[in-house]
Amino acid sequence: MINRPNYLKQLINFKDKDLIKVVTGIRRCGKSTLFDLYCDYLKNNGVEENQIIRINLEDADFDFLNNYKELYNFVKEKLLPNKMNYVFLDEIQNVKEFQKACDSLYIKKNVDLYITGSNAYILSGELATLLSGRYVEIKMLPLSFKEYISYFGEDNLIMKYTDYITKSSFPYALKLNSKQEVNNYLEGIYNSIIIKDIVTRKNITDVTMLESIIKFMFDNIGNLCSSTKISNTMSSMGRKISIPTVESYLNTLVDAYILYKVDRYDIKGKQYLSSGSKYYLSDIGLRYFLLGSKKADEGHILENIVYLELIRRGYKVYIGKIDNNEVDFIAINELGEEYYQVAYSVLDEKTLQRELTPLENIRDHNAKYLLTMDFTPYTSHNGIKQINVLEWLLNK
Known about the structure:
Elements: H1 5-13, E1 20-24, H2 31-44, E2 52-56, H3 68-78, E3 85-90, H4 98-106, E4 111-117, H5 125-130, E5 135-139, H6 145-152, H7 157-166, H8 179-202, H9 207-219, H10 227-236, H11 243-255, E6 259-266, E7 271-281, H12 284-291, H13 298-312, E8 316-322, E9 325-333, E10 336-343, H14 349-360, E11 367-372, E12 379-381, E13 384-388, H15 389-394
Parallel strand pairs: 1-4, 1-5, 2-3, 3-4, 6-8, 10-11, 11-13
Antiparallel strand pairs: 6-7, 8-9, 9-10, 12-13
Helix pairs in contact: 1-2, 3-4, 6-7, 10-11
């Protein structure tokens, strides 16, 4: 198992706290393995085996637990009366009205409850209402570049980066040797997301149109997109689709954690903008699987990797607008704001100036970074720090 220290630390910090720990993320990103790592930690720190209850609700062994009463009664019978019980429920969305079972287990003083889900549905609607203020969400992604490198070693970083984006950041893909094996594995993940988390849940009948939208979005990571633009593009290809249907499809892809939506922010006006958003992909390997290598866009792919790393580090991230220029990312945390511009290379002087201009137009004193693949000595352009992006990815 690959250690996932950042996520494991969060679980450890919330151990025995009066909160339901909800781990969310795209299918196969490592949620169940994180529970394995955490259970090892518990057993190494005085928790006995019979205090740990593990149920994977996608396992055929638990098919009979298809409603909240059966799940609750099954877990209740296994609880030790005079000890803390650590209850882990994987893929909880597979149980009808699961939120009622979660609430009933949560109120027991000797239960520390942990659940996972592969769809944002688990934190919407009734669960959010019923458990408001009583859960903490741990948002999980596939492997970071640093986690990937921890498995393979730090030699030949550029080659490792290429493998990272083309062979996938899903943990199990590391064990696969050939590109064909990786593609077969990614096909299984993709089909599982489409069928289980999207088509079935949303009762979508035009699967071909859904897949056309997915291919369009995969091909346009890092580009400003609107439902109107997508609808018009599909119509120009002879596939008529309404704007509300496009919006519904996009929301569903975001809910399944396959896409992340990033809104825009006017830096001068200090206001959020309602028009135009960008979308980024949870795993670039899925893009190569679906579109092939001919459609590779090195700059936007690198931008995608930086975005994912920023949200891993706990930032809220927006696209910045400054006059008529764009700042790739405004990253906000409890310490303030940081600005990031991402470019594959700025060795060309015109390219360098084009990337610096938006940052130079920002008049506040927050940190400003230019991240590139160029291996150049540390450089500061009037306070804008130019850093090699691979070193940046490995340094936190």
